[in-house]
Amino acid sequence: MWEPRTRLGRMVREGKILTYEEALETGYPIREVEVVDALLPDLTDDVLGVNMIQRMTDSGRRVRFNVLCVVGNGDGYVGLAVCKGKEVSSTIKKAIDSAKLNLIPVMRGNGSWESSEGPGNSVPFKVTGRSGSTRITLLPAPSGKGLVIGDYGRRVLTLAGITDVWSRSKGQTRSTINFAKATFNALEELNKTRIHDSDRDRLHMKSGREL
Questions:
Q1: For 110, what's the count of Cα atoms within 13 Å in the CB-facing half-sphere?
Q2: pTM of the shown model
Q3: Are the C-beta atoms of residues 61 and 54 closer than 8 Å to each other?
Q4: Is pLDDT at 34 greater than 80 in this prediction?
């Protein structure tokens, strides 16, 4: 049985908060995975990579694992995390939990000149994400185009609820972690752009899931 450790957790447990959106509106930080599980039970996780790291120390060979994981509901929420640990299974669980606590609402829209009708399941405008030397630029694509992006970016965008996008990449795109993190960062950058209400309607923009 879950025993909440935070005020927000207690509010969820008592039924005072019923949706993830209501939890965000409180302004309280979400620090318990159980809060996310209770309010977004349809989250799916995808382990993008498990890398073994070996180091020689005075006491012998030291082995640790680096796990990259993405979670999302396929409808406007996605989270990404990288965790290190001594055992694969426990590190995967740690990465999944961390990704759940790193969820962001995804701004979607239809910014493609090839299609001006809704619903908007692409990105509303051009946006660039960065991680290390990797640069990923997402561009609006018309409905039905699909996700024209590398595999790891495609998996992040799929769980975010984006179905159509063009993309450009620069830098070390062979790095799984940097490619996925740059794609996630591009989605974060969407939320930082101030949009006029008239543009929101024109681009069929929506943030988060459809309620």
A1: 16
A2: 0.90
A3: yes
A4: yes
